[in-house]
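Record 1 of the preview.
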Amino acid sequence: MAIVVPSCQKKQVSTTPRPPIVVPNRSEAPKEVPLPPAPKITTEPSGEPPVEVVVTTPPPKPPEKKPAPRRSRRGKKAAEVKVAEAPKPETPVAEEAKPAPQPAKLGVILTAEQTREFVKRLEEALDRTRSAVVLIEGKLLTKDQTETLGRVRSFLAQAEQTREEDLAGSVSLAERADLLSRDLLERLR
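->
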């Protein structure tokens, strides 16, 4: 029994006629259409206290380092090529002394009690994690366990780096590191 299937068929594309394009007569002036009246906006004080927003600026970026000249395959130093820089516009000395305005950064405002609680939680989580890392480092680890220990160290470093800018985020990172390190310790026992 033979089955015959057509292998090449021409695709038929149906075209629909496009509507004609109407070009306005250039001699006619454009008509003015009146706009609806603007909506009235009223601000009434609500029963909720206003939300405070803290605006901080990130530290300035460090200057870029120029790469060292490359060596050719024969061990000789490659010829240095000097690139002409575009001339900088002259600016008055008074403007150079001013630091450039930093972009605003939003943050959370914490009360003194909230700050103390976060600092306490952060210190406890960091201490527990550091102790666990010391215990874990003395053991023979599998590849997966070594990766987990790397994550713990990464979270620890990030928690310490973000401590000043984002205390709540730092606590979260430290607690994640603590949880991972305790889990790893349990699996090693």
